Amino acid sequence: MSAKKLLEGVRVANVGVALFAESLAAQNAPVVQVDWRPPAGGDPKMIERLDSLAACDAANDAAIERLQAAKPVWVDVGVAIEEVPGMGERTLLHAGPPITWERMSGPLKGAMIGAALLEGWAQDAEAAEKLCASGEISFEPCHHHAAVGPMAGVVSPSMPVSIIENRAPDELGGGGRACCTLNEGLGKVLRYGAYSEDVLARLRWMAEELAPALRAALRAMPDGLDIKNVIARALQMGDEAHNRNVAATSTVARTLIPYLAEAVNDTKVISRVAEFLAGNDHFFLNLAMPAAKASLDTMAGVKGCSLVYTMSRNGTDFGVRVAGLGDAWFTAPAKNPVGLFFPGYSQEDANPDIGDSAIMETLGVGGFAMAAAPAIVEFVGGSTAEAFQATNEMYGITWARSRDYTLPILDFAGVPMGVDVRKVIETGIHPVINTGIAHREPGVGQIGAGVLRAPEAPFQKAFEALVEKMSG
Asked: Is it the case that residue 389 has pLDDT exceeding 70?
């Protein structure tokens, strides 16, 4: 009897060496190759450590319920010095874990130089650089001040910031706030380290005209703008809420414009604001990020919780924070993204990964939801099949599926939510992140976009710290 006859009506799942599956596939037999590997690479000591953290399960259930219940709402636009907790008059906030001027990458230094010029602390780039190196400016992570920032993430005292409030019930962590600057658009912008006069002129217009107009429109809205609802709807419309925000930005603009027309008397201002929103598909990112932070911060401090509530990079280091380990950062060198580059640039020009925007993947969207947005591969590289694979892999390292953020292409399955350091160690699968790519030299700006995997070391360090804390 032939192998083909023998296999009639049989469906095969092959675990182990792929050669068997390939042989069956060559005979047109239905076969699935299962990508199975022993937990923690089969290391008995590591498996024992994993077993010692079984008590994290109940804490994770409690923390994930807080995350599921979060209701981030855009309530206002203010000025950083007035709205960002602990913001000093000579403070510049940045993305990622703490870092000193000496260790900053080119784009982060460029953004700091631009911020110093914007604030009027220096008259030219050379003087601004000297000031930044002098020790007179305090450089602190956005995450330490209830804020986030894409790419360099720079926030200076006079910058306008959007304010997101979590309107979940108090018993589920509601009431927290998070801030973020307004999105400038793509290309030659401050967050990518550019600081030419046209960059600064755009930022001044945003502070002087855009921010007051948005503030007036928001204050005319009775209940603010529900960002959770916008993200949920955008996932149904082809966005993944990190590097693709076309649907979300359009939804926000459509919602705002009537209130803008009602609250602002100058039709030319309305026209310029509408034109800016129409020409900036990434405007929503700077609303989604603080919404994600306000949601995830509800898990911080849940005793025994092994879920990650922060993933971020500063262009030099990649860092994570785990709910059951408080404010401690666990870091490793940031990796270089691989992707698509603007004409004239290549991989050699790319800076290591940078930005607080990995807060979107921490929430469960962005790279985790690429199956919702196969068109994203045209912007960050790769294939549609790889986009689906990335989402499916992330289910293997997360604690739950979102009740609200669902993926139509996967029969409306919830996005993978709650990165569990235990599962990262157990599976050897690392979070996938969509990202923009900055030039490694200050002053240049964005040169492309790509995808990468988070480094292993921060999760390994956090895992060991959790084992030690839980056994103490």
From this structure: yes
Question: Is pLDDT above 70 for 20?
Answer: no
User: 74: which residues sit within 8 A by CB, 6+ positions away?
Assistant: 162, 163, 164, 218, 224, 225, 227, 287, 291
Structure tokens at 110: 């460029």
- Locate 162 and state its tokens: 């959007």
Q: Report pLDDT digits (tens) over 323-379.
A: 999 999 999 999 999 888 999 999 999 999 999 999 999 999 999 999 988 888 776
Beta-bridged to residue 15, according to DSSP, are 34
Indicate whether 35 pLDDT > 60. no
Distance CA 421, CA 370 (A): 21
Locate 264 and state its tokens.
């602002």
Backbone angles phi, psi at 461, to 5 degrees: -65, -45
The distance from CA 459 to its chain's CA centroid, rounded to whole angstroms, is: 17
Radius of gyration of the chain (CA): 23
The model's confidence at residue 47, banded by pLDDT at 50, 70 and 90, is confident
Angle between helices 267-278 and 211-220 (to 10 degrees): 100
| Over residues 371-391, mean pLDDT | 81
Mean pLDDT computed over 255-267? 96
Q: Strands 31-34 and 12-15: what pairing?
A: parallel
Distance CA(356)–CA(285), nearest Å, equals 11
The span from the CA of 205 to the CA of 198, in Å, is 11
| E strand or H helix at 53 | none
Q: Are 241 and 365 in contact (CB under 8 A)?
A: yes
d(CA 352, CA 333): 9
* Sign of the torsion formed by the C-alpha atoms of 13, 17, 20 and 22: positive
For the whole prediction, is pTM greater than 0.70?
Answer: yes
- Cα separations (Å) of 19 from 25, 38, 196, 308, 442? 10, 19, 57, 37, 50
